[in-house]
Fold:
Amino acid sequence: MAIASSDVYRQNAFRVLGIGVSATLRDATKQVERRRILAELGQSEGGSPGRLELRPAPSSDDLRAAEAVVHDPVQRLIHELFWFWPLDANAAEPDMAIKAIQAGDLKTASKIWEAAKAAASTTSPQVAIAKHNMAVRWHLMALDLEGTSKGECWRSDDKELAQKTWRIALAYWNDSVRSDATWNALSARAIALNDDRLSLEFVQSMRRTIGRALLKINASLAIRYSDSTNIAGAEGHATLLLESSLPSGTPLVVDEYLIAPIKARIRQCIADAEKSRSTEPAHGDAQTRQLIVTFSRFDCISSKLNASTRNRDFDGLADEVATQCFANILAFHSVKNDDVTATALLERVLPLARSDDLRAKIVANIETGKGNQLWTTLDPLVKALTTVEESKSPPKERLSAFLGSVYPQIKAMAPVLAQSANVRNTLHDRIARLLRDISIDAWNLATDGKTALDAMGRADHYAISAEVKTRLAEDRVTLTRVYAEKRRELQTAKNKKYAWGVGIAAIVAFIIWVNSNDERSPRPAPNSTPSPAATITSVGSSVSGQPDVDKTYHIPSYRSAELARDRASAEAAQAQQNQLEAQLNAAQQALDARRQVAQSAQDELDRLGTNIEQERPLVSQEDESALQRFNAEVAKYNRLASKARHLMAESNELVDPYNALLARVRQQTAQTSSLIDAYNKKLEQYGH
Structure:
C-alpha cells in the first residue's frame, strides 16, 4: 500500500476533505469547492483545538488530490480502511461517534466505541468496527504526536506517552485485522460502491498486506530517526517492529523495510568513498570519518536486531565498512604520511571489523603507526646512533663515542621504548649490529682483543632477533678461538711456561663474562618515503646498520674454506626451505580464501533457509503475490544451494595439493636442520 507512511492520516482523503467514509461523490465535490474558496480567501475551518483539522490547512493541490482519491474506488477503499467507520452503515439516524469526530471530540467518540464493545456480543460486527475505529484513533494520535514534535517526543517527557500510544494502536490493529467481521464490513463497502474496478479479491489482498503496511511505517520511522541521530526514537520503533504480533511475516518485513534500505544506503556510501579514494586519496581521512558516522547512525537498530531472538546480522556490512575505511586510511597515509591521524582513525575503525583477518591487519597497522610516532620522539637517539655507524674513526674511539653519546640516551629513552616492543626490538638489534661491527674491526684492524671482547659482550646484551643472536653466537666462538690462538702465539714466542694457564684463564674469563649478561632493549633508523601499499609504512622498516655477512674475524684459510662450504650448503637448504614455505603460505591463503567464500555462501544459504521456514506458515495459498514472493525466495535458495555446493567442491580440490606441499616442507625442514646442526657442531669444535 503506497499510503503506508507516517503521513497516512495527514494525506487521508476523508480527513483532508472533512467528510465521512459514507459521503457521496457529490458531497465530496461540494466540500472540495467549499474548502477551495476558503483557502483562496486565506481562511480555514473553525472549531475547537481538539478538532481533527489539519494544520496548516490543505492547499488547492491537496484538495484536488483528495477529490481524485474519492473518485477512484480502489484508492477510496484503501483510505476508508484508515479512517473512522459508522457502527451501523444502514442506520437511519446519524452515527453519534462520527458526529463527535466531525466536531473534533475524539474522547466522546471513543466512549461511544467502548460502550459498543461492551454492549454487543463478541461476534457482533459493531465490536469489530469499534475496535477498528479505536485502532485508527490511537494510530492517528501516535503519528500526530510524532509529526507535531518532529520525533522529539521520544527524547522528552512524552516518551512514555509515545510508547503507550503506539502499543495501544498496534494492539487494536492486531485485533481488528484478525477479525473476519472487519473484512466483512469492508467487503460490504466495496459492494456498496458498485464499481467494476473494485472486487472482493482486492479486499482479500488488502487483508493479506495490511500487517506489512502498518509495520512499514515503524520501519521507515526507525530509519528516519537513525539518520537524525534520534537514538531513542529509532530504538523505540525497531522494538515495536520486532515485538509486533501483526500477521505480517515479521522477519521478511524486517529484511525488506529495515535491513535492505540500510544496506543500500551504506553500500552507496561505500561506493562513493571508493570513487573519492581513487581521485582524492589525500581526503581519505574525511571519507573515513563520514563513513563511520553514517554507519554508526544505525548502531541502535543493529544492536536491537542482534539482541532479538532472530539474531540478525547485516551480512558482513560492518566488515564492508571497515574494509573501505581501512583502504581510505592507507591511501591517506601514503600521501600525507600523517601517522597521528591515521592511527587515531584506525582505532575508530577497529570496533567495526568482525573478521579475524581484517582485525589482525588493522591492529598491525595501529602498532606500526604508534611505532612511527615513537620514532619521532626517538630521533635524537637515532641521530646519535647514525653518527657512530657512519664514523670512520678507529674502533676503540667508535666504542667510546657509543658509550658517551648513545648509551646515555638509551637509558633516558627507556620509558619511550617500553611503549612498543617492535620499536624497542628493532632499535636494540640495530645497536647489536653496530657493536658487532666495532668488535670485528677492533680485531681485524688493530688486533685489539680487549675492545673486541668489550664490544661483543655489549652486542650480546642488546641482540633480540634470532638472526642477530645466531650471528653473534657464531662470532663469539670465532673470536674466542682466534683470540686464544693469538695468545698462544705470543706466549710461545716469549717462551713463558705460564702462558697456557694465563691463556686458558683469559678464555674462561671471557666466556663467563660474555654469558653473564642477558638483558634486552630495542633500535630503528630514518624512514624511507612511504609508498601506497596494503599497510602503513613503518619508520623503522628501513634499518641502517645491517650486518655485513662477509665481514668476520680472520681465521686460518683451510678451516674457513671448510666452514664456508658447510655454511653454503646450509644456506642453500634454508633457501629451498624458504621457497617451499612461501609456496605453502600461498597455497594456505588460496585454500583459506576459497573456504571463506564457500562458508559465506553457506551462511547466507542458512539465513535464507531460516527466513523461508519462518514465512512458510504465513503464506496464504489464495494470495498470488505472496506466493510469487515466497516461490522467488525458494528459487533463490535453490540457486544459492547449488552455488554453495560448487564452492565447497572447489575448496576441497585444493586440500590434497596443500597436504602434499606440506609434506615437502616438513622433509626440507628436517634436512635443513640437520645441515645447520652439523655446521654448528663444527663451529663449536673449531672454537675449542
In short: The chain has 27 helices and no strands. Residues 152 and 158 are 8 Å apart (CA to CA). Confidence is low (pLDDT under 50) at residues 495-533, 541-547.
